[in-house]
Amino acid sequence: MELKPSKDAKRPWRWLLAGCLFILLAAWLLPSFKTKQASGPSLSTNASNADHWRALNDRWAASHAAKANSASAEEIVARRLKQFGAKRRALVDQLAKKYKIDLPADVKRFFDALDAGNWDDIHRLYKSLDALNSPGSDVRKYWRAILEAYGAAEQVHLWPAQQLLDYGNGVLNSLKPGMVYFGGTDPGCFICTMLNETSQGEQHLTLTQNALADSSYLEYLSAIHGDSLSLPTQEEQNNAFSQYVEDATKRAQHDAQFPEEPKQVLPGENITITDGHTSVSGQVAVMSINNILTQTLLQKNPDLSFAMEESFPMASTYAGSTPLGPIVQLRAGDSITADAASQVVNYWQNEAQNLQAGGETSTTVLSSYAHDATAQGDLLAKNNYPAQAEQAYQTALDISPASVEALSGLTRALTQQGQVDQAAQILDTFLQNNPAQSQAVSNLRQQLGSVPH
Fold first, then answer.
1. What is the reported pLDDT for 65?
2. Most buried residue among 260, 372, 382, 400 by CB atoms closer than 10 A?
């Protein structure tokens, strides 16, 4: 099965976050739903980090050794996408029956196109269904299943097959038994969800932190995982929204009253106060609300272990978290040791070498690896390992030389260590190689303050 090219494929995970902006209206319009108390297994965390890293290396070596004796990567990916599409088709039918709603004819056509592997038809029919996806519509009841099927197909369209398998298996093989997995970026969410649900081994609960503020997503999770997860209620969603708006209002008022002091409103955070009423929008606002709800979900499931592939920095998740292969284990409890910090650097340097040895690689693939390396650099920086964080950021920039987020992390780490001239030189070099990013570089200089032009 071949996924044929499309003329207007979208950027990874950008459209997912754009969809989350819907929550600023939808959180108040969609009905509340009943959640169930978690009944999942209690997890053991007795294995040491060193043992886990050794196990990761063993699984990685075994998976690469098996490649020569297996079906081609293209055949494997095509088969597993077909299987995943069938699972999501069955789930849509199940949800339609549960809510006693009729499915548009394009739903069947969409899954038929996915089964046939026809990307142009998949994309066209997805757009047709998306046009029906309005607040309060019946489509909201099963939309996430459509989105996950389309997201998996899009990643299959964008990624070379072997690299897709390497990336997804790298994440899934890092998970400890019984772990719940938060996927963040489109690859981290949709590739891993597809491979997880079509695996012959242990299958983990998979979800995304990006959509927790969307009531329809929590209703969807309640329908498919409600027996295993205790989810935020509608009241807790409302409280998260109110908590963020209250905090955003105070910070915006501070910046207006004290313009000479450091800004408290974050870059990209859109806060408007009109006649005493605060409105918020944008990626930062959405993820701030999701951040609060992530902590709520963790608190409501104290016996479950969680891992996360980060889409956007969520400060509250750094406390108590530890690196876990390419991702992060949340509330691990133990502090990150110097040895673990060094293992992170070694891991990403090895990944960079593997990518380089694999020959020409698409920008999409490189950006995904660089993003995850940068996220772990952020974790190291927050845990007072500036030198190791600097190395992780540098490796991310080596993987994807056009990565603004890796550049941001690296120059921030250098500046904090007093290496201002080196940070300035890196910004100059980056700008020479990426002239289209002049505004981003200018913004970084402004945020860093002490870095000269």
1. 46
2. 372
Q: Strand, helix or coil at 22?
A: coil
**Within this chain, do residues 400 and 322 fall inside the same structural domain, yes or no?**
no
Same domain, 63 and 174: yes
Environment class of residue 232 by beta-carbon count within 10 Å: exposed (0-12), middle (13-18) or buried (19+)?
buried
Q: Would you call 250 helix, strand, or coil by DSSP?
A: helix
- pTM (2 d.p.): 0.84
Token output for 407 = 């550049």
- Identify whether residues 180 and 227 lie together within a single domain: yes
Same-domain check for residues 306 and 356: no
Residue 179 lies in a domain: yes
pLDDT tens digits, 227-237:
999 999 999 99
Looking at the structure, tell me whether residues 295 and 165 fall in a common domain: yes
Model confidence pLDDT, tens digit, residues 406-427: 999 999 999 999 999 999 999 9
347 near 328, Cβ under 8 Å? no
- Structural domain including 417 reads 352-453
Query: Is residue 452 very low, low, confident or very high in pLDDT (cuts 50, 70, 90)?
Result: low
> In this structure, what CATH number is given to the domain that contains residue 417?
1.25.40.10
C-alpha 123/C-alpha 10 separation (Å) is 10
226: CB partners within 8 A, 6+ apart = 35, 36
Contact residues for 62 (Cβ-Cβ < 8 A; gap 6+): none
Q: Let me know if residue 346 belongs to a domain.
A: no
